[in-house]
Amino acid sequence: MSWVEIDGSMGEGGGQILRTSVALAAIAGKPLRIVNIRAKRKNPGLRPQHLTAVRAIAAISGGKLEGDRVGSMELTFRPGRIKGGSFRFDVGTAGSVSLVLQALLPVMAYAEAPVRVEIRGGTDVPMAPTIDYVREVLRPLLGFLGYEFTVRVKRRGHYPRGGGIVEVEVPRPPKGFKARDFTERGRLVEARIRSHAVRLPRHVAERQARSASEVLRRELRVEPRTEIEWYEPGRDPHLGPGSGVLAWLVFEKTVMGGDSIGKKGKPAEVVGREAAEQLVEDYRTGAALDRHASDMLPVYLALAEGVSTIHGALLTSHAQTILELLKIIIDGYKYEIVEGAPGAPFKARIHGAGVKA
Prior knowledge:
Blueprint: E1 4-7, H1 15-28, E2 32-35, H2 48-61, E3 64-66, E4 75-78, E5 85-90, H3 97-108, E6 115-121, H4 131-143, E7 150-155, E8 164-170, E9 188-198, H5 202-220, E10 225-230, E11 242-251, E12 255-261, H6 268-283, H7 291-303, E13 305-312, H8 317-329, E14 334-340, E15 346-353
Parallel strand pairs: 1-2, 5-6, 9-10
Antiparallel strand pairs: 2-4, 3-4, 6-8, 7-8, 9-11, 11-12, 13-15, 14-15
Helix pairs in contact: 1-2, 1-3, 1-8, 2-3, 4-7, 5-6, 7-8
């Protein structure tokens, strides 16, 4: 079988190209060579978070890697069989657990047997979806495609200490996905907020939640159901302080979310307001998918059997890059942007390749 060649500097040129390429190569059973890894970044090449992701894919799929070291600008991957089983991976830093899962989840869906992974790293860190977004927004969205899995947060990890522990289990890998339209929301079922604060006073989580609630009440005229996550001093298992908020809307046909994390010197009220305002902004576009899901779902829909249509809140550079990257690796997939433009809401039609295990 001929090698798939990927230029890691294509499009936005980030780590998402690497993670997605290796995941798709494992699923498609195609040997892969990727060059110019993260060439457009300030610190180009592989970082610990990226190493964890590609090594995790190799472990689950029985694949072989060459060039998997920090700073490497080139990587080769020869896939094997996605067998299933139990695995543990450690980023070793506060690198994002969610981004590692972004690479692993499509691969786990094609396992021959149940698969469980435990990942240690950052659960709520900058420049990545929070783990709450993964379990409360992405997970139910994938459920619409026939993909069921559980996400258990054993311990949160924040920058710079990390130390979060997340367990994900796929008891019945679907070995493929259903096509689906994400263009209509249906009836609003509920609005929810989860605000957490670890190694910090309880009022931090409460102020975050109150601020997010005020935005949703004022802007959307909804009364959210709020959850406060906090731990008594002496019973808090986390390695360092941190906080964050997820605000999400559950509809009959979709889920939309907005998240934000705290940092030193950033008022709790600002954290809560940012999460809710992001959600409101995406809601007001009329889209069925928020900005994060708009660039996560195409990977699954490209593998699905049939034609899907999405209405996304924002056509990001990430989304554009992934839509093009998929064409290089997945035979039989194609897409069209039927409405919208980069940096704006959009509608796309995705012709899935019907990839089965």
